[in-house]
């Protein structure tokens, strides 16, 4: 019981920051657009160099029964859900998106996801552009 109380206190003490879609868009343009394209549909200038074409990121919800796959997206950014791209895993962008894990996102089942504000902003942008 003491561990549960301690864990709950830590969770409640973590500052919940609102995601910033505009900041997420800037990060996307800087880090992701070379492969995924400016419109996030997968047609970036690096596509020809990739072993596997980048997916259309505007259809993540549509390919997931209408629910944005927030957990898979976060796991992709931090390297826990690897994807093959240049003959190896998609680059892990944590060094570029790293920061204190002070943003709390919520999985569809309500499970909190503690991540950096930059990743939270990028996730917010991707969720905002779903078709």
Rg measurement, Å: 16 Å
Proportion in β-strands: 5-15%
Helix content: 40-55%
Secondary structure category: mainly alpha
Low-confidence stretches: 4-15
Question: What overall form do the CA principal axes indicate?
Answer: globular
List the strand order in the largest sheet. 1-2
What is the number of beta strands? 2
Count, helices: 5
- Overall pLDDT score: 81
Could you describe the largest sheet, including whether it forms a barrel? 2 strands, antiparallel
Helix/strand order, N-terminal first: HHHHEEH
Give a brief rundown of this model.
With 131 residues, the chain is mainly α. The chain has 5 helices and 2 strands; from the N terminus they run ααααββα.
Note the main attributes of this structure.
131 residues, mainly alpha, two-stranded antiparallel ribbon
Structure description:
A hairpin with a 5-residue loop joins strand 1 (103-106) and strand 2 (112-115). The longest helix has 16 residues, at 21-36. Helix 2 packs across helix 5 (117-128) and helix 3 crosses helix 5 (117-128). The protein is 40% helix and 6% strand. The chain has helices at residues 2-13, 21-36, 70-78, 94-97, 117-128; strands at 103-106, 112-115.
How is the secondary structure organized here?
Elements: H1 2-13, H2 21-36, H3 70-78, H4 94-97, E1 103-106, E2 112-115, H5 117-128
Helix pairs in contact: 2-5, 3-5
């Amino acid at each position: 019981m003491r561990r549960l109380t301690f864990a709950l206190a830590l969770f409640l003490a973590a500052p919940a920051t609102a995601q910033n879609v505009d900041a997420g868009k800037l990060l996307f343009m800087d880090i992701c657009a070379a492969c995924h394209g400016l419109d996030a549909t997968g047609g970036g200038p690096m596509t020809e160099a990739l072993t596997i074409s980048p997916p259309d990121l505007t259809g993540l919800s549509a390919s997931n029964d209408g629910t944005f796959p927030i957990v898979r997206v976060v796991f992709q950014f931090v390297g826990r859900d690897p994807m093959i791209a240049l003959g190896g895993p998609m680059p892990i962008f944590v060094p570029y998106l790293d920061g204190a894990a002070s943003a709390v996102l919520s999985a569809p089942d309500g499970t909190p996801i503690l991540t950096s504000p930059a990743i939270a902003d990028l996730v917010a942008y991707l969720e905002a552009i779903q078709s």
